[in-house]
Amino acid sequence: MAIVTLIGKELAKKGTEFVYLGPLTECRDCKLRNACFNLEPGRMYRISKVRDTEHECKIHEGGKVVAVEVEKVPVEAAIPSKMAVEGTVIRFESQKCLNIGCASYPLCNPLGLKEGSRYRVIKIKGDVKCPEGRTLKSVLLE
């Protein structure tokens, strides 16, 4: 089922992916706030359809927002190998790695996933090379 929300007209392009960060305090008195703030904070979304409906907005560049249909996007992440079983639901904990120069850093600290939240492992992509010696798998979570 499609989720309909509002996004700045300049950003509203089919296929655009974004992490919803949550409501802005500047918007608390806006009559459209319920349509803008109906997504899960910290979650990754992809625009699947741009609708023709436009509204005035004081926050977005260009002063306009449009209605879009979005879908949740599975996020690739590194998890301990023992937790990597397709179809299981896990409580996500990032690897808390501080080695930002590591090629696997984005997998160990992925955007769009919330610490402690539950996600389903939908696909195992393979092993992750870890210079710290951790045994990790790259998976898609939803």
Number of domains: 2
What structural class is derived from the secondary structure elements? mainly beta
Overall helicity:
under 10%
Mean pLDDT: 92
Largest sheet: 4 strands, antiparallel
Q: What order do the helices and strands follow?
A: EEHEEEEHEE
In whole angstroms, the N-to-C terminal distance is 15 Å
The residue ranges in which pLDDT falls below 50 over 5 or more consecutive positions are none
Q: Determine the strand fraction and express it as a percent band.
A: 35-45%
Task: Give me the count of strands.
Answer: 8
Q: What spatial form do the alpha-carbon principal axes imply?
A: elongated
Radius of gyration, taken over Cα atoms and rounded to an integer in Å: 18 Å
Alpha plus pi helix count: 2
Q: Which strand order do you get reading across the main beta sheet? A: 1-4-3-2
Description of the molecule:
This protein has 142 residues and is mostly beta strands. It has 2 domains: 3-72, no CATH class; 75-141, no CATH class. 6% of the residues lie in helices and 42% in strands. The chain has helices at 33-36, 105-108; strands at 3-8, 17-20, 43-56, 64-72, 75-80, 89-91, 118-128, 136-141. The strands form 2 sheets. The chain has a 4-stranded antiparallel beta sheet, with no helix packed on it. It has a 4-stranded antiparallel beta sheet with strand order 5-8-7-6. Strand 3 and strand 4 (64-72) form a beta hairpin.
